[in-house]
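Document type: protein sequence-to-structure record

Subject area: structural biology

Format: plain text, a pair of labelled lines:
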Amino acid sequence: MVRRYGRCRRGERLVDATPWGHWKITTCVAGLRASGLIAPMVLDGPMTGEVFQAYVVVVGI
């Protein structure tokens, strides 16, 4: 993430460069019980309905 604000001397304009790249989405999902987390799963991409249904079937919730 890139900062949106910065500091400089009064009357001067702040100029800075930001890195440009391709962003990658990583999704983490897990169940929560009183004893702790169960069935954690990490995806390279967004959570879709199909992926969630597959997660529920595999975990057996």
Remarks:
- Residues 26-59 form one domain.
- The chain has a mean pLDDT of 88.
